[in-house]
Amino acid sequence: MFVKKSRGPRTAVLPDGTILSLADLPDPGMRWVASRKAVVVAAVKHGLLSRSEVIERYDLSEEEFASWVHAIERHGRDALKITQLQKFKQL
Fold first, then answer.
1. Does 1 reside within a domain?
2. Residue 75 contacts residue 41 (beta carbons within 8 Å)
3. What's the CATH code of the domain at 69?
4. What's the pTM value of the predicted model, to 2 decimals?
5. Which stretch is the leader sequence (predicted)?
């Protein structure tokens, strides 16, 4: 088995004790759902990827990624759900 070298850490331990690895990140081009957005935000927060790497890898705008981070910090993971968007925008 060939393990690709990476510049940073390969895993991070999240506050709830789960381990997040580079393999847990969604593939580029996948449909965005709340759980995938949350994984990407957690990867940046815990140092698996830099903000610029995520923006380039997933072809996101700075504003879009910043809105994900802000939504999670302010209202939690549920704020990333499209069905809940209007509810959290009013707050």
1. no
2. no
3. 1.10.10.10
4. 0.80
5. none
72 found inside a domain: yes
33, 10, 63, 74 alpha-carbon torsion, rounded to 10°:
70
Helices (H), the chain: 34-45, 51-57, 62-75, 85-89
Question: pLDDT of 55-86, one tens digit each?
Answer: 999 999 999 999 999 999 988 888 888 665 55
Distance (Å, rounded) from C-alpha 50 to C-alpha 47? 7
Rounded Cα distance, 32 and 80, in Å: 10
- Give residue 91's identity as a one-letter amino acid code: L
Find the domain containing 60 and state its range: 11-89
**What mean pLDDT value characterizes the chain?**
85
Which residue shows structure tokens 């209007």?
A: 86
